[in-house]
Write a structure and sequence with these properties.
Layout: E1 2-9, H1 18-31, E2 37-45, H2 56-66, E3 72-75, H3 78-81, H4 85-97, E4 101-104, E5 109-110, H5 116-147, E6 159-170, E7 176-185, H6 187-201, H7 206-215, H8 237-241, E8 259-262, E9 265-269, E10 276-280, E11 287-290, H9 299-322, E12 341-343, E13 350-354, E14 357-360, H10 361-366, E15 377-378, H11 379-393, H12 397-444, H13 450-483, H14 487-499, H15 506-516, E16 521-528, E17 531-540, H16 542-550, E18 562-569, E19 574-576
Parallel strand pairs: 1-2, 1-3, 3-4, 12-16
Antiparallel strand pairs: 4-5, 6-7, 8-11, 9-10, 13-14, 14-15, 16-17, 17-18, 18-19
Helix pairs in contact: 4-5, 6-9, 11-14, 12-13, 15-16
């Protein structure tokens, strides 16, 4: 009996939910042709474009296919699988490699037939061409809407959306057909737009502006939107500053002066990282429409703010040039503890807020009303204090002895519980070897079909897995037992290497630190008389230590962490509290 899986997908949330059932029904009708086929799994992605592979059930289907949970995959047509020709081809090759037969019920493509590579390749190119043509048509329609004064972007603070309905035409549900959306001034929000522009023109920084807005509990942009997060939205300095080149950010939006500008940028997906980024368009492609009825800011105030923004941009560029950084350093971490330090008050990341200082990112961008942890600490001081604490206090000799005893107990327990599994795997291995020998004999006799090849590949994969089950686990246990006596010495050697790490090795060193401290170090603000300092809460992860030092990744029971708080004084001195476990 062949196990059959079905995959269905539709792209837009405006499409009917019944589209999935229609695709399933077509696949079920196709599967009913052969009584030896049994549908055992169904996968469906709703309202997700086929141009992306980031689809939950699509990824789950690939995982199950690799694990041999089914033998055949049926789709209504190849466009349901993917609209990207490269992704579609890769998926076809993966399924064939895993021994899974792929069938497109409507377009007649079957990977068990001859020349299916050519047919699927042509179909994939046609699917991608359909998307490209669709993009052009959508863009053409949007340009027409923009020229007629309709709003095409997202929600803009200071305005409310007003749908425009056709007086005669009806949609499929009998309601007036929506022609487009226009904007109208929201007086409650517009007064705060004026207030923000006036304060910035007077010299108040975006950080101080958002601090005051949050203190007054002014609803932030998006406060009334449907959100996945339950956290109340707050004002952020980044939402004011934005990007002057792309025209993002409240202070850069010309709509407040009565000019609607559209098509300033486009979103493109990086073919390697698959991350979408905004790319600025040439000014000749911009579509500017005068909308004087939407003016909130007069020209004089706009000119003052624009001049101030230009001055800030020049200052930032000059500062980066001074430090030999004409542009951002990008996503790669530059410092040893980048991304590991967490604010104990709000849970936000501690970031480098100046050339040589760490501070809370929430306090920096949203102000003291959202997070009152305004303490800063010199970067070199934090690095030296934390490395010293990790080296001296994180894993005590007593704690290491307890950990070694616990690991030996767990290893012995796992060996006892795994003996029946090993015996079962050994017996099955003998059966698999006999079956492989029979197939090889049949091949030598001239009996070779597609099913013979699939069966042989399946048995060889099972043979490899059984061999690893029998031999691999014992080698792993022996490796861990040999490592345990030298655990303390290996840990100290790793820390010595971290102290002397060079810039190209920062990323690797951060990975080591992340395993040792349980992925984060919490910094709690506190005080001691006239001095102010941050208490660093370090949590030693013994399992991470063994994984790093032995090169293994064991799924053992969680081991109690060792905690050692250390005080980092914001004025430049370091004190350490009494060690606690």
């Amino acid at each position: 009996m062949a196990r059959v899986a079905l995959y269905a997908r539709y792209s837009s949330e405006h499409q009917k939910e019944s589209s999935i059932e229609d695709q399933y029904r077509n696949c079920e009708r196709y599967a009913a042709r052969d009584p030896a086929w049994s549908i055992t799994a169904r996968y469906a992605d709703r309202a997700i474009s086929g141009t992306t592979s980031d689809r939950p059930d699509y990824q789950r289907m690939l995982v199950d296919a690799k694990a041999k949970h089914f033998d055949m995959l049926l789709v209504d047509d190849f466009s349901r699988l993917s609209r990207d020709s490269v992704e579609s081809e890769q998926t076809r090759r993966r399924l064939i490699h895993w021994g899974i037969r792929l069938i497109g019920c409507s377009d007649g493509i079957d990977t068990d037939t001859k020349n299916h590579e050519m047919l699927s390749g042509i179909k994939s190119v046609m699917n991608q061409a359909f998307i490209s043509d669709l993009k052009d048509k959508i863009s053409r329609g949007m340009i027409g809407k923009a020229l007629h004064g309709y709003h095409l972007g997202g929600r803009t603070y200071g305005y409310k959306l007003v749908p425009e309905l056709d007086p005669t035409r009806k949609d499929p549900y009998g309601n007036p057909e929506r022609v487009g959306t226009k904007l109208a001034i929201d007086e409650d929000q517009a007064q705060w737009v004026k207030w923000i522009f006036e304060r910035y023109a007077e010299g108040m920084s975006p950080h101080k502006i958002v601090t005051e807005l949050n203190r007054r509990q002014v609803p932030a942009p998006g406060a009334a939107y449907r959100r996945k997060s339950c956290r109340t939205p707050s004002w952020s300095a980044a939402s004011l500053q934005g990007n002057a080149t792309l025209g993002t950010g409240l202070l850069n939006n010309p709509l407040y002066t009565g000019r609607a500008v559209w098509n300033r940028s486009r979103r493109e997906k990086d073919p390697d990282t698959h991350i979408r980024a905004h790319i600025a368009r040439d000014r000749g492609e911009w579509i500017e429409t005068p909308v004087p009825h939407l003016r909130i800011i007069d020209e004089a105030l706009w000119a003052r703010v624009t001049a101030a923004r230009a001055g800030v941009s020049r200052g930032v560029y000059d500062l980066r040039k001074l430090h030999s950084r004409a542009r951002s350093t990008g996503r790669n971490p530059k410092y040893l503890f980048s991304g590991l330090l967490v604010c104990g008050m709000c849970g936000g990341k501690f970031v480098v807020c100046a050339t040589a200082t760490y501070c809370c990112s929430t306090w920096r961008t949203r102000g003291e009303t959202v997070c009152a942890n305004a303490l800063r600490v010199p970067r070199k001081l934090a690095e030296s204090a934390l490395l010293a604490a990790i080296q001296k206090d994180l894993f005590t000799p007593k704690g290491l002895d307890v950990f070694k005893a616990e690991i030996i107990r767990l290893l012995a327990s796992q060996r006892r519980t795994r003996r029946p599994d090993v015996a079962k795997a050994t017996a099955r291995l003998q059966d698999v070897e006999r079956e492989i020998a029979h197939i090889i004999t049949a091949i030598k006799a001239g009996i070779f079909t597609g099913s013979t090849k699939t069966a042989l590949e399946t048995l060889e994969a099972e043979h490899t897995a059984l061999t690893q089950t029998i031999k691999g686990r014992n080698k792993l246990f022996d490796k861990v037992v040999a490592f345990l006596p030298n655990m303390e010495q290996r840990f100290k050697a790793m820390i010595d290497d971290l102290v002397a790490v060079t810039q190209p090795e920062v990323d690797k060193a951060r990975g080591i630190l992340r395993e040792l401290v349980g992925h984060s170090i919490r910094l709690h603000p506190t005080s001691d008389g006239a001095d102010r300092f941050l208490t660093a809460e370090l949590s030693g992860d013994y399992t991470g230590l063994m994984k790093l030092a032995s090169g293994t990744n064991l799924l053992l029971n969680p081991v109690r962490r060792h905690r050692s708080p250390n005080h980092i004084n914001a004025t430049g001195t370091v004190t350490k509290s009494t060690e606690s476990v």
